[in-house]
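Reopening: structure tokens for the iron/sulfur cluster complex, inputs below.
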Amino acid sequence: MGRQAFIDAARCDGAADCPPRAHCPAGAIFREEEGPYFVGPGCLGCGRCLAFCPLNAIRLV
Ligand code: SF4
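Re-run output (same inputs, fresh job):
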């Protein structure tokens, strides 16, 4: 199985204008109401989101 992005909920501030979400080609970054974001099963493992997170909350696992 390929790698997937993982968002550290302790680092993510759940900002409404999340840059990684805006740049994810798969639309795989979600959140529940005001909580932190998480990565869904549609993640392609491309790693694009990592460069856009200002809080360094995303890594590939
Ligand atoms: S690794 Fe790629 S597909 Fe997966 S959440 Fe990040 S930008 Fe989206």
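The first strand starts at residue 5 and ends at 7. The chain has a mean pLDDT of 96. Marking as resolved unless the reporter disagrees.
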